[in-house]
Amino acid sequence: RFERASGRLVVAGRLDREELCAQSATCMLPFELLLSDPLQFFRVEVTLDDINDHSPVFRQDRVTFKILETSEPGSRFPLEVARDLDIGRNTVQEYSIFPVNEYFIVSYGSRANGDKYLELVLEKLLDREEQTEMGFSVIAVDGGSPPRSGTIEISIVIVDVNDNAPIFMQERYSGKILENMPEGSLVLTVLATDPDAGLNGDVFYEIIEAVGQSDSAFVIDPITGEIKITKPLDFETAHTHELIARAIDGGGLSAICKVLVEVVDVNDNAPELVVSSFSSPLPENTVPGTVVALFTVRDRDSGANGKISCALQDQLFFSLRPAYKNYYELVTVSALDREETPQYILSVTAADAGSPPLTSTQTFTVDISDVNDNAPVFNQTSYTMYVRENNVPTVFVGAVSAADADVGLNAKVSYSLAAEQGPERPWCSCISVNSENGHVFVLRPLDYEHLRQTEVTVSASDAGSPPLRANVTVRLVVLDENDNAPLVLYPAQESSPASSELVPVSAEAGYLISKVVAVDADSGQNSWLSYHLLRATDPGLFSVGLQSGEVRLRRPVTERDSVKQKLLVLVRDNGKPPLSATAALSALLLKDFSDVRLPHSSPASEDQDTSLTTYLIIALVFVSLLFLISTAVLVARKVCRRKELKAGHVLYAADTLQSGLADAAAAGTLPRAYCYEISLTTGSGNSEFRFLKPILPSLPPQHCAVGQGPDEEQDFPGVPVSTEDMAPDNAGTLSAGQFNAL
């Protein structure tokens, strides 16, 4: 198409040289161009140049050749050339084989007449037994840019010739089988091929022998070549088995191969522990690190199944220590104490690394022998034992007991008294301890009043070497027995003459006559005293304080009561059985102290007085006769005596009671002191009264029982008197033997 405006000649559509010119070497398109204004005529020829727009093409996609295996090298097998619509350099330029092989090459070119050819050329002798057929591609490539190609598939079938014996695929077969596989399990399959065809190519199998075994555990299938076991294998018996297998074809040709069967270990054997040495019993003072046992471990399996590890369950006191190769040592790691653990049961477990792992356990029983490392221990920190006084000799009072945590001789405990008591604990020879059982005895009778308690140290010693000992304090407490009767301090019972208390007849009920004072050497309830009126001239006249011992009037005195009263007081303790003592008292019932008559100093004169009334009558007669003579003398003496008794004089009983009353006064058990002043008439007896200064000179007048001054006349209740032997010439005086300080 011609463009008028620009004057260009352009292609109106796509041009195909192969369609327009086919295979011509040149391709010309002639046409005429007519131009107007001015009118012109032009002849135009357009040359079409070829481009590589077509690929080489084979008429067939696949070609098969059957070639005898005996064909000689150089044999040619023609192929149809590939067609390419392009021309020149864009047409087919070369052929090649892909993949390249050693048997064939491609040959191409032009014959003399110009025809092109393509041939396969055999380069190497074929062998059907090696390769029954082969295939490759022939590729045609043009010279365009970029080049284009076409392909044809070549299949070569090699025709057989019967000229080969059977051949095993491998000269040596190796197989593995687990040792626990059952009978009939497949081990491996051997394969032999015969390149021949037909009967000559049929192969049969057999086992010639099992190397080193007279009774083979293997069998081979003659057709398939499968080798199986006829009985279970044992890895521990034989790790491998070597067989000779033979293949025979139909023509009698044969081949052999070696078969090696490896038995794979299965973890079917537990580890074994073999003890080389073991020490038991073990002393408890064994130092840490001491070897107790030496043992080795082994496992008949192999690999991981034979790899063993050992473990000790209790590693607090013992541990395992590797020694040499598979040897282990069981050693102590800390101090042992038999008293805490007398026996150790140690379990050593050996485990392999199989899956699942197998284990075995070895038990070591380690007995711990005793060492004397524990002293005896008493079951009490101290002992208190009791014994009653007046005990029988060798009386059992208790037992000490000590235990020793050791055993045997180390635990045999003997007891003894410690020799060194110290200054604060003097040695007591009255106590003994049994060396075997710890029984404590008191060897002699004890007196509570002399020894109330004592302490000894008892030692417990074991029989170890060296022996260990422990001490404990034993306190022996003596219990009081009621073995002491009450002792009457006042009134004294051994005094001579006996004392008499002066009681005015005007005294009211409750009047204190005297007080019985007694003590008991016992203690506790045994020393609790009670006082009872045992006997009296008139029991209804007197009462005795149960606890105080005070003798008082129960009722007022009457004229019918006897002047002289005798009392017997019973002093009894609270023991079981109770003990008692008696105190004798005398009391004179007087209207006033002018009637006082003191008894003779001798006990015989007191026994001759049959009636106090008789003595009084006789005294009155003598007083009447001597009244006139004695008046002057009596008045003079009275004045003198009053001066001497300004501060008040105490009149006491007979001198035989002096010491007893003094003791009672010192003990604080006598009633309060009384002060008396006596005035006598001219009719009083002589040589029977004498005024003495009191033995307590510090007692002031204001402490007297009667509140009058020293110059006032007083009656003296409670002063014993007698009317015998009164003389007029001695009126107003008392003999020194009649009144003494108590």
UniProtKB/TrEMBL annotation:
Record membrane topology: Single-pass type I membrane protein
Q: Where is this region: Disordered?
A: 707-742
Give the UniProt subcellular location, in the record's own words. Cell membrane
Query: Where's the Cadherin domain?
Result: 1-58, 59-168, 169-273, 274-378, 379-488, 503-605
Instruction: Give the GO molecular function terms.
Output: calcium ion binding
- The Polar residues compositionally biased stretches are 732-742
What GO biological process terms are annotated to this protein in UniProt? homophilic cell adhesion via plasma membrane adhesion molecules
Q: Which GO terms describe its cellular component?
A: plasma membrane
The cross-references to PROSITE patterns, in alphabetical order and at most eight, read: CADHERIN_1, CADHERIN_2
**What's in the keyword line of the UniProt record?**
Calcium, Cell adhesion, Cell membrane, Glycoprotein, Membrane, Repeat, Signal, Transmembrane, Transmembrane helix
Please, which domain of life does this record's source organism belong to? Eukaryota
- What sections of the protein cross the membrane? 615-636
Q: What PANTHER family does this protein map onto? A: CADHERIN-87A, PROTOCADHERIN BETA-1
Task: State the name under which the record lists this protein.
Answer: PCDBD protein
